[in-house]
Amino acid sequence: MKNRTDMAVENMQMDFSYDVDRIIHGMHFKKIKVDEKLSKKIKKKKGIYYTIDSLDYRMKPKEIIKLLETTIYDYLVQLNLKPKSDILVVGLGNDFVTPDALGPLVINKLEVNRHLEEHPDKYNISALCPSVMGKTGMESKDVIQAIVDDFHPNLVIIIDALACRDAKRMCNSIQLSTAGINPGSGIYNFRKELSKETLGVDVLAIGIPTVSDIDSFVDMEDNYFVTPKDIDLAMDILSGLVAEALNRALRK
Question: Could you tell me the pTM of the whole model?
Fold first, then answer.
């Protein structure tokens, strides 16, 4: 498929109606529940999709953290998790490839507490970086499934870099979804699906688009992707914002 995208919002038509469509601190926040009918139209799995566009991560870090924190907390409230529920945060990606390093970078900045006998936080937080199959020889899904089957978390939060169709969204958007994720699907490298159906536990996927098809810039059929020239700085800042939003939302 030409100009493939992981962003559900990019497959929406102009006449689609969002459940929430607001401008907050200059950022465009959208929320939509994709049912079976809409799922067939946009070719995305059923679930709730949150999109935050027009990020200004250099000038508005506090505003981004607050909006992302509120969005994560909104989903936690819907789940109605009991105090001291176990939450596993998974950082997908390759920390040696900058555009794919979002997941590991977030995990490095995440505050975990499951190993502590006593702590004041509402949830028990643990973290995992399964790396990529090219380095481990194992599917990320199989590694995560083994942990899930052993620890039995109440929620799995998955962080991953995404691909977008509109190059303006690179490092400028965040997507949260209850539909799960197919690692690598945005760059035609399909891996096993990570979702409630496959893992047997609720899933929240958080992703930031870091690459786009070269076809977005020129009319050609090459299987190449581009990334922003300041991707190193962007990943350092954005991973910190996502980690801080998670730290705050999970401590409430």
Answer: 0.92
